[in-house]
Known about the structure:
Elements: H1 5-17, E1 21-23, E2 35-37, H2 39-58, E3 63-66, H3 75-80, H4 82-85, E4 87-92, E5 99-101, H5 102-115, H6 119-134, H7 138-147, E6 164-167, E7 171-173, E8 186-188, H8 194-198, H9 201-207, E9 214-223, E10 238-248, H10 253-269, E11 278-282, E12 292-300, E13 303-314, H11 316-325, E14 331-337, E15 342-347, E16 350-357, H12 358-369, E17 370-374, E18 383-387, E19 398-402, H13 409-420, E20 426-428, H14 434-444, E21 448-452, H15 454-459, E22 461-466, E23 472-476, H16 477-488
Parallel strand pairs: 3-9, 19-20, 19-21
Antiparallel strand pairs: 1-2, 4-5, 4-6, 7-8, 9-10, 10-16, 11-12, 12-13, 13-16, 14-15, 17-18, 21-22, 22-23
The chain binds glycyl-adenosine-5'-phosphate (GAP).
Glycyl-adenosine-5'-phosphate binds near residues 226, 241 and 355.
Amino acid sequence: MATDSNQFQKIISHCKEYGFIFPGSEIYDGQQAVYDYGQWGSELKKNIKDYWWDSMTRMHENIVGIDAAIFMHPTTWKASGHIDNFNDPMIDNKDSKKRYRVDHLIETFAEELTSSGNEILANEILSSMESLLAKDDFLGLKKLIEDKKIKCNISGTCNWTDVRQFNLMFSTEFGSTASENGEDNIVYLRPETAQGIFVNFLNVQKTGRMKIPFGIAQIGKAFRNEIVARQFIFRMREFEQMEMQFFIRPGTQKQWYEFWKAERLKWHLSLGTSTDNYRFHDHIKLAHYADAACDIEYNFPIGFKEVEGIHSRTDFDLKQHQEFSKKKMQYFDNDIDEATGKPFGNYIPYVIETSIGLDRMFLLVMSQAYTEEDLSTAEKQDSRVVLKFPAKLAPLKLAVLPLVKKDGLPEIARKIMDDCKSSFRCFYEEKDTIGKRYRRMDAIGTPFCVTVDYQTKEDNTVTIRYRDSMKQERISIESLKDIVLLAIR
Ligand code: GAP
């Protein structure tokens, strides 16, 4: 697994320096594994969201979106199995008191072995770990850690506790009065957005007159008390998911699972990424609700890692909600079953889920875009950092730059801004040389810059400069808007 931690560090620094991502609550020294999106980061994130939302809902006539509340009735999490099963095996180092997720501890050790050229041993350890995890063999996991002399990176010792399960859900209290047993008021911050879709399945199906197969999509925050939250926005405690539950007839799950695997990979590739940077990873240990599951992994600078999950969730969730709520979660299918000649009738639908982390997708787009270019010539040394975002995702689409701050050039530039800003995000700047302004726009990934100069006053033309090729050409002001609109479609 080729990793480039130097490249990763550069991306993290760039995100901070250019207003994409700041450490959360930085003035108080930050809050571990919590990040704030800055002025350009929030634009990029919104564009990714819109691209996903439009591809899922507008481009699929049988998928609609909802926006459910983060707080859900606590029984939701009993029914979904999260109270009993949403656990990770953890181990504590007795000397440093630091807690680790067992799989992360072993994976990090394996990554170190790989970087030091010992890939065969690393793979052996990883495959032992996977089979022990699949069997919930905690004694075996502890033995593996001890046998391989895996150390805590703080104390440097191998003095470990037993492996134990910890629930990943955050809880808080609802309302102002504490109840006698203190438990009645407990609510959870949702660990996945999916349950908001399941509890609204019938509301949407009935009011939207939806016919199976159909999907419900949602974008929203999710919260997990990740013990080892690390690798920048890759693993956070507060993050955003873009999920879609696709309701289908029982028995058709294999076919729809394959359909959504292909469809989601197509979506990723539509952003111009090469297929070599993606791969599927089938789950060995299935979540409590799934009969098949895989990850779409992307080749991040930290190696191939999960960005999206495709899960065949059976009828587990709807069945559980039916049992716990005592409300029917059934659908009446009046299509004719060819085998019997009769309607399919009442059933609890099966579900295929696609679930992508918005923050991971952000990191993917950023990793893909970040480029360092050597522009040196025989005369001088030069270089630039450019974010080669797909134009439709770029935070800013067009920068409008008057050559000088006088002689009527700013007024013309302002007029261009006024004509374009209702159609796409524009940016006006008149400070510094044009060269410096171009470089600043490269660093935040703006695909087009136009310079207004003295010739503009004579013939209504501007110089358009393309971010990736740095090519410049003269175009009429009139044609500018269409050029940008065509590129960001
Ligand atoms: N509803 C299914 C579900 O939540 P998951 O594989 O646990 O499945 C789906 O999560 C996606 O959410 C992952 O593929 C990942 O992109 C994102 N994700 C999960 N935990 C995350 C975390 N702690 N920080 C950032 N993204 C996370």
